[in-house]
Amino acid sequence: MIPGICLGNVAVDCIDAEKLRGFYAELLGWEKRELYGCPAMISQAGFVFLFMQEGDYIRPVWPEEQAKQQKQMHFDFQVDDLPSAVAQAEAIGAVKADNQYGGEHFVTMLDPDGHPFCLCAKESI
Questions:
Q1: What is d(CA 105, CA 103) in angstroms, rounded to the nearest whole number?
Q2: What is d(CA 13, CA 99) in angstroms, rounded to the nearest whole number?
Q3: What pTM does this model have?
Q4: What is the pLDDT of residues 79-103, one digit of tens each?
């Protein structure tokens, strides 16, 4: 291990950094910030998402298709009320993915730039 190492931020490539930051800030309730000259947001726990606007960004295809842009990552967000969370995400610009594999456990959504993310029902441990 590298002494003192910790996660600094999660960088998300996108078409419109301000718009995508706004989407995730509203979805998660995190504080909007600027970091390294880019739109960012931070959670109360100190997690940072940094939005990197890319002129040649290509939306991923989900589920993956051969010879098409693959997803590079996806987020799983734990929620108390799955149907309500899906409705709220749709109200701010997310869309439910055509293909669903989670049953009652999770719903795959697409953010405004096509990144898949899942809203997952919290389970007791």
A1: 5
A2: 23
A3: 0.86
A4: 999 999 999 999 999 999 999 999 9
Q: What percent of the chain has pLDDT over 70?
A: 98
Measure the CA–CA gap between 118 and 66, rounded to whole angstroms: 22
Residue with tokens 């504080």: 31
CB-based burial, 36-45: b 16+ in 10 Å, e otherwise = eebbbbbeee
96: phi then psi, degrees, rounded to nearest 5: -75, 130
If you write DSSP's letter for every residue of 44-87 in order, what string do you get? Answer: TT--EEEEEE-TT-----SS--TTSPPP---EEEEES-HHHHHH
What domains sit in the chain, N to C, each tagged with a CATH number? 7-55 (3.30.720), 64-125 (3.10.180.10)
